[in-house]
Amino acid sequence: MKPRHFTVAITGASGVVYGLKVVEELLRGGSRVSLLVSEAGFAVLRQECGLDLAGTPGEILDGVRSHLGLPGELLGYYDLNDLFAPIASGSAAPDAMLVVPCSMGTLSRISCGNSGNLLERAADVMLKEGRPLVLVPRETPFNAIHLEHMLKLARLGVRIVPAMPGFYHDPETIEDLVDFVAGKVLDAVQVEHTLFRRWGSRP
Question: Is residue 43 in a domain?
Answer without folding.
Answer: yes
